């Protein structure tokens, strides 16, 4: 449903959907229509939208001449994957059928050294950077991970800790560190807990026992910033339980 929300808001039409798997929210294409890295498809008339003029077509490549573009340049501007066909679903299926029927004849040409055939199929040595369509497929473009993160924050009612975010590796990769990601999302950064001596660490457990009349669980300490992190106990005493035995 959520996929439709952002699109229907823009188009007031529930038949318009992304042609390829795309996870919202999407980045608006400010200079024209639709969204970056998304091909919008009208499922009733089986046509896709040109991002520049907003008109709907069965196939875009011919029309793009009007905008003095070729399909590769278009895909670069709209941040679509280079191998994405600019065709409506109906035409795409038809083309695929034709291609597979021709494949047996084509296969013979697929011999190594056949330069004529390979000329158009040579791969570039350098991998081009990933386009937005790639990230949209997995819901990992910047605004999508921000959206995911903020939903998690709302669910928890506080800023999530690094180990509570299942995609924290992605955040670290994208922003440099977890805290830098928090700053980018305008979230409060967790202060580093101070370094405690072994004596102080055990004192925390003793005081907890005195105050609450029970032995603390590792989770009690993990969730409260006023206590040392349980991993500190494991590092110092070997395990959480060993620390308990020493303290009590
Ligand atoms: Zn156009």
Topology:
Elements: H1 2-11, E1 16-18, E2 40-42, E3 47-49, E4 56-57, H2 71-78, H3 89-107, H4 115-118, H5 132-138, H6 142-156, H7 168-175, H8 178-184, H9 198-212, H10 218-223, H11 230-237, H12 240-247
Antiparallel strand pairs: 1-2, 2-3, 3-4
Helix pairs in contact: 7-8, 9-12
The structure holds zinc ion (ZN).
Zinc ion is lined by residues 50, 52-53, 55, 63, 67.
Account of the protein in words:
With 248 residues, this protein is mainly α. It has 3 domains: 1-133, no CATH class; 140-184; 198-247, no CATH class. The protein contains 12 helices and 4 strands, in the order αββββααααααααααα. A hairpin with a 6-residue loop joins β3 and β4 (56-57). Zinc ion (ZN) binds at residues 50, 52-53, 55, 63, 67.
Small-molecule binders: zinc ion
Overall mean pLDDT: 87
Q: Termini separation (Å)? A: 54 Å
Cα gyration radius (Å): 27 Å
| Domain module tally | 3
**Low confidence ranges:** none
How helical, in percent, are the residues? Answer: 40-55%
Strand content: under 5%
Give a quick precis of the structure.
The protein is mainly α and 248 residues long. The protein is 46% helix and 4% strand. The chain has helices at 2-11, 71-78, 89-107, 115-118, 132-138, 142-156, 168-175, 178-184, 198-212, 218-223, 230-237, 240-247; strands at residues 16-18, 40-42, 47-49, 56-57.
């Amino acid at each position: 449903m959520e996929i439709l929300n952002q699109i229907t808001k823009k188009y007031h039409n529930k038949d318009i959907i992304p042609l390829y798997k795309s996870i919202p929210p999407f980045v608006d294409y400010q200079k024209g229509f639709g969204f970056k890295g998304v091909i919008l498809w009208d499922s009733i008339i089986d046509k896709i939208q040109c991002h520049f003029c907003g008109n709907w077509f069965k196939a875009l490549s011919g029309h793009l001449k009007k905008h003095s573009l070729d399909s590769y340049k278009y895909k670069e501007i709209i941040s679509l994957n280079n191998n994405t066909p600019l065709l409506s679903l109906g035409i795409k299926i038809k083309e695929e059928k034709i291609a597979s029927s021709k494949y047996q004849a084509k296969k013979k040409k697929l011999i190594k050294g056949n330069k004529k055939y390979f000329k158009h199929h040579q791969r570039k040595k350098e991998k081009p950077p990933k386009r937005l369509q790639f990230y949209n497929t997995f819901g990992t473009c910047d605004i999508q991970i921000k959206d995911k993160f903020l939903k998690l924050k709302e669910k928890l009612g506080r800023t999530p800790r690094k180990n509570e975010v299942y995609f924290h590796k992605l955040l670290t990769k994208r922003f440099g560190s977890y805290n830098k990601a928090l700053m980018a999302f305008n979230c409060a950064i967790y202060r580093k807990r101070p370094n405690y001596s072994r004596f102080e660490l055990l004192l925390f457990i003793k005081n907890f026992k005195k105050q609450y009349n029970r032995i603390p669980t590792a989770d009690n300490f993990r969730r409260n910033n006023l206590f040392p992190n349980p991993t500190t106990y494991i590092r110092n005493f070997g395990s959480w339980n060993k620390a308990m035995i020493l303290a009590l």
